Amino acid sequence: RAKDEGGGEHCVFEPELHAMAEERRQLETSLRHALEREEFKINLQPVVDANSEAVVSFEALLRWHSPEHGFVSPAKFIPLAEDTGLVVPIGAWVLEEACRQAATWPVDAKVAVNVSAEQLMESDFAETVVRALDLSKLPPRRLEVEVTESVFVRDGHIAKATLEEILALGCSIALDDFGTGYSSLGYLRELPFSTIKVDRSFVQGASQGSRESLAIINAVVAMASSLEMSTTAEGVETPAEAKMIRDLGCTKIQGYYYGRPMPVDEARALLANPRSLAKRDAA
Ligand code: C2E
Ligand code: MG
Ligand code: MG
Ligand code: MG
Fold it and tell me: Which residue intervals define the domain EAL in the entry (predicted)?
């Protein structure tokens, strides 16, 4: 029996709801032990300069292989980690590992680390960043923190204060997934972001002929440029998309066309031999 009348095509049956809650509970139990059991690793995805196609940075993306659940997508476990507070210790580990890796690279490229609102609410988050930099000896200018606009929505003043501490250390801050979710141009006034990351949905839209997506990318590029911020297009998968993005004037490009998120050793090798940059890895 459907739980409610009028639920339309989205009505969920009770046993199904029950199974979903149960799955979530099991996932949470596993997630609680994942750090101590060393089930995490980071992959690194290259970001290239739109014109020279040289690798300028890597984004650290968390990967979880659970013995019970297999590979679990971050889209699934990050929200769970956020809801349970586990993202605080897990995120600290990502920061340390990302800095440790970047410190071993043969060139001065930046490493970008995703940070959730829950991490920024912790009063000692800046200390966590300092510790990661100290342990690795990575110069602060080589660390970029990626946040989404959502961090400014609830308790935005706390997030802003924490991010100002991070800026004072000499790190940079990127605004991720721009244009999705809680978009408000007002957030661009909050901090001097180094980079605005244009969400993949706009790249996809524009490449499928959406004039709206194209116009939005154009406007973001122009606005970023007058704010002295750079732009990174996310999710570029084909040569045609890379050309379109370059013609639109985006500063940097990230996506399967130039390289998928890769194991840390491959990332280091790529920097040592840039000619091995993918372009063949396109989907
Ligand atoms: P994000 O920060 O926007 O990361 C970009 C996502 O797009 C990554 O997904 C990446 O694998 C994917 N991607 C990159 N290029 C392409 C492309 O050309 N095509 C397609 N289809 N996808 C592409 P991933 O690794 O599954 O991560 C998803 C999200 O999970 C991230 O989105 C980020 O919000 C979150 N996340 C990942 N690692 C961490 C972490 O260490 N901490 C936190 N707080 N969040 C993380
Ligand atoms: Mg990101
Ligand atoms: Mg993104
Ligand atoms: Mg995204």
Answer: 24-275
